[in-house]
Amino acid sequence: MIDAFITREKMIKACLLLAEKKLVQGTGGNISVRTEQGFLITPSGIDYNDLSLSDMVELSLKGEIIKGERTPSVEKEIHRMIFELREDVNAIVHTHSIYATAIASARRDMDAITDNQIVIFGGNIRVAQYAPIGSKELAANIAMALGDGYGALLANHGGICVADTLKEAMFRAEMLEIFAKTFILAKSAGGGIPLSDAEIHTVNTDVRKRYGQKKL
Ligand SMILES: [Zn+2]
Fold first, then answer.
1. Which residue in 138, 170, 188, 207 has the fewest CB atoms around it within 10 Å?
2. Is the overall model pTM greater than 0.85, yes or no?
């Protein structure tokens, strides 16, 4: 379960950070965090600069509003379905960042052409089949593309990152855009060479163990 320190205030700060880092434009994108009873999600169509704590809407895992006056994000079904299917996920960040959206609009998977992508996302980042915004079909397509990974692209739309914490999901959202940029630049440099399944496995099982600091 999510730690108690992640609050509505942290969600607002994260929204402002998404705008500042140009990972969303206007009122686009959305953020959600798991709660005891369901999840908190950003409201639909409110400028991030105008967000207040009470604008966040709490929904149950069945999609019913538990708390909040605002209309929740139109993409709430995506968040609901991921929280339902992935018990390890406590935070979701959906972005419309330019490079990731460009690859998503080409309906291409972002194969792991750097080992850094494997360390942060677990491997290849798949593009979910297109379906209308807000539809259950789109949510199901995204859940399928995500699998047990940490990121996916939404065809002709944007990207989505999931994590144990909001901080980690925000980091992945930023890295998704960096890897997308690298992916596109590698194409113009002669083509990125995707790492093989065996190489991905090695990074996931070996390098990951040695990377970073030991938990104290
Ligand atoms: Zn969107």
1. 188
2. yes
Per-residue confidence at 214, pLDDT binned at 50, 70, 90? low
Place of tokens 């998404």: 18
CATH code for the part of the protein at 8-210? 3.40.225.10
CA nearest neighbour of 211 among 120, 87, 125: 120
The owner of tokens 């099982």 is 205
Residue 75 annotated in active site:
yes
Q: Please give the distance, rounded to the nearest whole angstrom, from the Cα atom of residue 117 to the centre of ligand 1.
A: 22
Using the mean position of ligand 1's atoms as its centre, give its distance from the Cα of residue 120 in Å: 22
Catalytic residue among 75, 77, 174, 177: 75
Specify the DSSP element, H or E, that contains 53. Answer: none
Q: Where are the domains of the chain?
A: 8-210
The Å distance, Cα 133 to ligand 1 centre, comes to 7
